[in-house]
Amino acid sequence: MFPDMTIELFRPNGTSAVLLVTLGKVLKAIVVMRSLFIDRTVVRGFNENVYNEDRKLDIWTKSQYQVFQKTWLRSYIKLFQSSCQRCGRFLQDGLPPTWRDFRTLEAFHDTCRM
User: Fold this and answer.
1) Residue 108 pLDDT > 70
2) What is the DSSP letter of 64?
């Protein structure tokens, strides 16, 4: 359904599931599931390493980039191409519009979403 998105499934503890979601050449997200609930999500830039030195998924280290510490996966394929729907600018305080409307996926800066 989404050609630029790949999802890999890992089961490190047998029952828990960990998903590695790659969105084009924009970002990689690690989603830790406990039963049917999302327990933890870590998003990193495409060029950042998602594995630790033991070649296991690193579910704890945050991205070095502030922009990837916000998460709306599907709408991020155009993260650096979408302008804010309220102010029309691409950057505000050095960041792209990272907040997404849940229903429409329109992009807004955090301060413009109100």
Assistant:
1) yes
2) S
